[in-house]
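Handout, section B. The chain below has 664 residues.
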Amino acid sequence: MNKTNVHTQPALFHGLMASICMTLIGHANHLSAMITITGLLFLGWRWWLIINNGKGIESRWLRIFLTIATIAIVITQYGTIVGADGGTALLCLMLALKAIETRHQRDLVIAAQIGIFLAASLVLFNPAASTLLFATINIWLYLTLLLAVYSQKKQLNRVAVIKQLRYSGFLMLQALPIMIVLFFLFPRLPDPIWSLPRASQGGGMTGLDDSMSPGNISHLSQSDAIAFRVRFDGSIPDNQRLYWRGPVLWDTDGRTWNNRHQSQPLSSLRQQIEFSGNGDRYQITLEAHGRHWMYALDLPATIPQKANLNADFVLMAKESINQRQQYRVTSYRHYVTAPLSRQERQRALRFPTEHAEKTRALGRQWRRESETDQMLVKRALNYFRQQPFHYTLEPPRLGSHPTDEFLFSTRKGFCEHYAAAFTLLMRAAGIPARIVTGYQGGEYNNVGNYLLVRQRDAHAWSEIWFPHQGWVRVDPTAAVSPLRIERGIDDALSEEAFASDRTGSARLWRQTRYSFDAIGMAWNNWVLNFDTNLQTSLFATLGISSWPILALALTLALTAVMALLIIVIKHKDRAINDPLAAIYHVFCSKLDRLGLRRQAAEGAQSYARRIAAMRPDLAEQVQLICKQYNDLRYGQADASSQQQLQRAVRQFHPRRQDSQTSRP
């Protein structure tokens, strides 16, 4: 095998190149573009060499130079060649380099083995069901290559390749029962393997930040990426009630809003918030975003494990969320918060110096002309309704005084513009105010019965403080674009989008997306979230209360699976070693279901005569099939005759007769 040149078998070589290309594409989502492009260029170079001279790179010094260059590229991109990202990038490029020098079947075997490892590592970066399916197909191709190499066939035609694909698929199916037993019964680690830290983790994640400038959220609102999914215990609240609370912004220089002093965790939730009415209970599956905040409806009354509720009433994880998280929350929409401290009041009234002078003047004018805070807020919202403000993702560029220019000149903007302007107006009028960022609304998945909250649902609103009520949410965007709050961003930006969404093709595409997402959600719930707690509950249900009992149960389960596999493999090997016997066995099984079982020592001709006597209606077909079988078994018939026999058996569909004699 080692001295056989792979170029004499184009199917092997092209299969290897296609498999490596698939592996590189699979890793492209989390590796830098430079790594992926370099690997694909290596493969393209190899194909070019094959087309021109049919050989790989034979120069030893060139191979050494390419190896050093590859290491340098990885270090440039990641600063290291070890770890999850750097090590994987190096292996990907080395695999592509191995394809360049592959000449013998031994080289192909090494490349395929490396490829299998890299394909399996895909789930370490993204353990989604779609990734597992992609990795499984990739491993299937590599395994087929290995089987084709060890088959020692000089030429691989289409029929031989299909046969190897079927056999490698059968081998993978054999491992499935063992994998299931080990998954449920083998003691689990406290954290999954894919939770291991990565140097670049979080670098390419999308989501809200802890600062806001004009354009930040409108940029997110062009993304279809999933932020989180929500499953309610009861009915889903109306869209206008779905305000998912995230970072709270207090401080501004007139253009950028942020939170310079991070809020501390609350020492006592009940002392800070007085809840009333009925709560909403729900479960959130939060995608990784590399930050600490966890989203919840206003306001959360329960705190998930490994999280705190800070003084801004934002759920904060104790560690960065670098992998998908699932947690349960109960929230109340009716609440009264505790009085402001002196420092909080000063902070919520602070106005940027030398900025927004017109905004300050308008707020003070409203203060003088309004008897109560509530009347002042109503006047501000009417101002946004009655003046020619326009809701758009593409507002004009603002200059050095963005709030004044927006309120009195351009009057075109997104939620961040309205929230920032309203908050400064309230501060100018002497009402404590701040900005809350998060998400608003959600898309109902009727297949899985849960909400999809996407990055395009990112939103910003204001909170103002009233005596005896505490912090109260006010959304000035709702005054300008009620559709944004009632239906979502797509319908707010275009009525045509709402109409086109009702077409048949749009509904079919939407239902298809919902179905795939529901499958992914089930995968998350039943596989990725199967942790030590769920396994302990399963053990309790099965009556497994100690390690010896668990070891016995695992041993018995694996023994049963192995025994079943041995039976299946023996039957399969019999069919592979003697395909003619397998065809005849199918024929006899069809008659056996009618009570016409073949006797142990009964030959084909004798069996045909007995069937003809008992069932004259089957005599002609049975005698023809048995004659073909005998000719193939004892004669000199060719392969086409075996195919004719297989076709005849496949088309043989005997029916039971009411007057049929009993089984002999």
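Note. Residues 193-197, 199-204, 495-500, 659-664 have pLDDT under 50 and may be disordered. Compare this with the example in section A.
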